[in-house]
Amino acid sequence: MSESEIDAVVFDVLGTLVDEPAGIRAGMRALAPSLDAPGIERLLSLWQQHIEGEQRRVLDGARPYLASDALDREAARLVADAAGVDDPAAVGAMALSGRRLPPWPDTVAGLARLAERFPLIGLSNASRTALLGLNAHAGLRWLQALSAEDARTYKPDPAVYRLAVTVSGRPPERLLMVAAHAWDLRAAQGLGLRTAYVSRPVGDPPTSADRFDLYADDLADLADQLDKADGLSR
């Protein structure tokens, strides 16, 4: 696959460009400073299970759509209850921790390099407000950042990926979806997008049955591969 075959690059954000668990852990340490590492990991699992479970309920039609902000507030209350914290201000701060996620070490430079050659589109399950905050905090560079809130559903619903297709004005096969989650790429692939898996410690690795267009160790490796493919095509 060469650069000339791609008109825009679409990025998943949570987990792919920012370290979501690290940001949530930091919020938990601020919520309850006495928590030890195993305690934080138990609460992180509680947070993640709630968010993933409620998003699945929305996808299954078992619950009306709620933006990620509402789910984060629910998760924060669950975590605070489990930690024995009843300070509303502390719970409110915990609920906002999803907007203060650190970028991976290669993210900012990798996006800047890719932005020299492609329009970059962010595509996230985070709400519009949350996405604005985390983009600013992590220093992410976009032509446009799209929230699943605009489709009133969550990935992997095809409607979310159609947002990127519509905004780009290009056929799906001219877009490259980049993610650290194989489930995310499978869904994009189902709509006809090209796919690139980027390895992250917190991602969802491909299985032996997956066939993505590119597999990269990080964003620098992804840019190198696109450079090489383009050079070979000339």
Structure commentary:
It contains nine helices and six strands. The mean pLDDT is about 95. The relative contact order is 0.18. It is about 50% helix and about 10% strand. The chain is globular, with a radius of gyration of 18 Å. The longest helix is centred in the N-terminal third of the chain and has 23 residues, at about 35-60. With about 230 residues, it is an alpha/beta fold. It has a six-stranded parallel β-sheet with strand order 3-2-1-4-5-6, with helices on both faces.
Helix and strand content put the structural class at alpha/beta
- Stretches where pLDDT is under 50 for at least 5 consecutive residues are none
Query: Which overall shape is indicated by the principal axes computed on the Cα atoms?
Result: globular
The overall average pLDDT, rounded, is 95
Please summarize what this structure is:
The chain has 234 residues and is of the alpha/beta class.
Feature tags:
six-stranded parallel beta sheet; globular; 234 residues; single chain; 11% strand; alpha/beta
Topology:
Elements: E1 8-11, H1 20-31, H2 37-59, H3 68-83, H4 88-95, H5 107-115, E2 120-124, H6 128-138, E3 144-147, H7 158-168, E4 175-179, H8 182-190, E5 194-198, E6 214-216, H9 219-233
Parallel strand pairs: 1-2, 1-4, 2-3, 4-5, 5-6
Helix pairs in contact: 1-2, 1-4, 2-3, 3-4
